[in-house]
Amino acid sequence: MKYYLDEDISPKIAEILRKHRIDAISAHDIGMVQVTDKEQLERAASEDRCLVTRNRNDFIRLTVQFFNEHRRHAGALIIPHTLPGDNFSLIAKAIIKHYSKHSRDMIEPYTVDFLEP
């Protein structure tokens, strides 16, 4: 499982994940800030990365759109707002837990999963 962190997620979380040998990049790392959500999802999908975001509604809508248009999509992982955005280690630990459940198998294309605290 590879992750692509949306620009609404701190790049520090990607750094923590990489220290745990998890393949994670941040939109900030690759200059993908201030682009549309659709462009973020396209970039993640082009690299077979699960998109990680706090932007639930837009990415659920885009997932349905990509499915209907038969466009590539490697899944989305939604971080709930019950996890404080500035608690990088807590979010990273939750993603690591998600990774441990899905490391052998990618989540199915077009899947929207919700991160458990």
What does this entry look like structurally?
This protein is of the alpha/beta class and 117 residues long. It has a single domain (3-114), classed as 3-Layer(aba) Sandwich (Rossmann fold). The chain contains four helices and five strands. Strands 2-1-3-4-5 form a five-stranded parallel β-sheet, with helices on both faces. The model has no long low-confidence stretch (mean pLDDT 93).
Helix/strand/pairing category? alpha/beta
Q: Please report the distance between the alpha carbons of the first and last residues.
A: 19 Å
Q: Count of DSSP helices? A: 4
The CATH class name reads: Alpha Beta
CATH topology call: Rossmann fold
State the total count of DSSP E strands.
Answer: 5
Percent strand equals 5-15%
Order of helices and strands: EHEHEHEHE
**Name of the CATH architecture:** 3-Layer(aba) Sandwich
Strand order of the biggest β-sheet:
2-1-3-4-5
- In helices, the fraction of residues equals 40-55%
- Please state the average pLDDT score: 93
Shape: globular
Question: How many structural domains in the coordinates?
Answer: 1
Backbone CA Rg: 13 Å
Characteristic key phrases:
117 residues, alpha/beta, Rossmann fold, five-stranded parallel sheet, 14% strand, globular
Topology:
Elements: E1 3-5, H1 11-19, E2 24-26, H2 37-46, E3 50-53, H3 56-68, E4 76-78, H4 88-102, E5 112-114
Parallel strand pairs: 1-2, 1-3, 3-4, 4-5
Helix pairs in contact: 1-4
Please outline what is shown here:
This protein is α/β, with parallel strands linked by helices. It has a single domain (3-114), classed as Rossmann fold (3-Layer(aba) Sandwich), CATH 3.40.50.
